[in-house]
């Protein structure tokens, strides 16, 4: 028969009681911390200045002194309500093709007014093409002399007040983005991409991407494409020469709509 020392039994009971007490204290602290977080987040919702993306919120418990760090991106999502950004609908892919009648294409457009321009080194030219009430799709054809150029298409979900096609020139993709921000404040711009991999610099709250900016061999074949209207708005056809430090690009283009 094995004899157990009363001292060992008492020590075991003490350890068990201590462990239970620690678990109970941790549970209480967690509940108090959660209550503190809920109280602070409730106060945040009443602020006139909403937390911006990337902000960090630090909460210190009045009961335990513990500090918790919250991300405004996650914690404020349910507090923003009507201020939450809505992503634009996804764009259907365009139809794109090429054809080899380069000489005939350039000769024809060279005689037409406003069908040829020079995209200077480091510049981005954006041709703004509003949807037309009698049209159902936009079509484009373009070519360049001697060298390639970046090209991409985006869609601005904005009411159309004029069907005039306009041309905007900027020194770079970044400068163009700053101009758009001045027109309308839009938070969290998507970082500018690379023309080699597809630039996504114009993707914002009200902009849809039809095709990203890639370098096109427009000096070898005429580049052409079309896209069905997703609704009312303005197409942004971007000709990107921002990657070129030395060469200007002569651009021949034809943009029209079909019904």
Structure class: alpha+beta
Q: How many DSSP helices?
A: 5
Report the principal-axis shape. Answer: elongated
Can you write the helix and strand succession as a string?
A: HEEHHEHEEEEEHEEEE
CATH topology name of the domain at 95-172 and 204-258:
Jelly Rolls
CATH superfamily of the domain at 95-172 and 204-258: GOLD domain
Radius of gyration from the alpha-carbon trace, in angstroms = 30 Å
The major sheet is characterized as: 5 strands, antiparallel
Helix content: 25-40%
Strand order of the largest sheet: 3-10-6-12-4
Strand portion: 25-35%
Give a written overview of the molecule:
Residues 7-17 have a biased composition (Basic and acidic residues). Residues 1-23, 167-201 are annotated as: Disordered. The protein has 259 residues and is of the alpha+beta class. The chain has a domain at 95-172 and 204-258: Jelly Rolls. 26% of the residues lie in helices and 31% in strands. The chain is elongated, with a radius of gyration of 30 Å.
Topology:
Layout: H1 6-44, E1 56-60, E2 67-71, H2 72-75, H3 77-80, E3 95-99, H4 102-110, E4 116-119, E5 124-130, E6 137-144, E7 149-156, E8 166-170, H5 173-183, E9 207-216, E10 222-228, E11 234-240, E12 249-258
Antiparallel strand pairs: 1-2, 3-10, 4-12, 5-8, 5-11, 6-10, 6-12, 7-9, 7-11
Biased composition (Acidic residues): 172-188
Domain GOLD: 93-257
Organism: Neophocaena asiaeorientalis asiaeorientalis
């Amino acid at each position: 028969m094995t004899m157990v020392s009363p001292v060992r039994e008492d020590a075991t009971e003490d350890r068990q009681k201590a462990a239970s007490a620690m678990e109970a204290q941790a549970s209480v602290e967690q509940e108090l911390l959660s209550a503190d977080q809920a109280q602070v987040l409730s106060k945040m919702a009443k602020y006139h200045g909403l937390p911006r993306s990337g902000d960090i919120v630090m909460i210190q418990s009045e009961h335990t002194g513990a500090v918790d760090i919250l991300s405004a991106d996650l914690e404020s999502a349910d507090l923003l309500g009507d201020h939450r950004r809505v992503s634009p609908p996804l764009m259907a892919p365009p139809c794109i093709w090429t054809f080899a009648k380069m000489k005939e294409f350039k000769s024809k457009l060279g005689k037409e007014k406003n069908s040829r321009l020079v995209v200077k080194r480091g510049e981005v030219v954006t041709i703004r093409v509003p949807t037309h009430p009698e049209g159902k799709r936009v079509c484009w054809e373009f070519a360049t002399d001697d060298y390639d150029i970046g090209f991409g298409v985006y869609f601005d979900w904005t009411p159309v007040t004029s069907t005039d096609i306009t041309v905007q020139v900027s020194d770079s993709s970044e400068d163009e983005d700053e101009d758009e921000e001045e027109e309308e404040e839009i938070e969290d711009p998507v970082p500018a991409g690379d023309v080699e991999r597809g630039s996504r610099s114009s993707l914002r709250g009200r902009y849809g991407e039809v095709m990203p900016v890639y370098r096109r061999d427009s000096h070898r074949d005429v580049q052409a494409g079309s896209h069905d209207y997703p609704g009312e708005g303005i197409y942004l056809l971007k000709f990107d020469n921002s990657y070129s430090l030395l060469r200007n690009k002569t651009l021949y283009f034809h943009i029209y709509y079909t019904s």
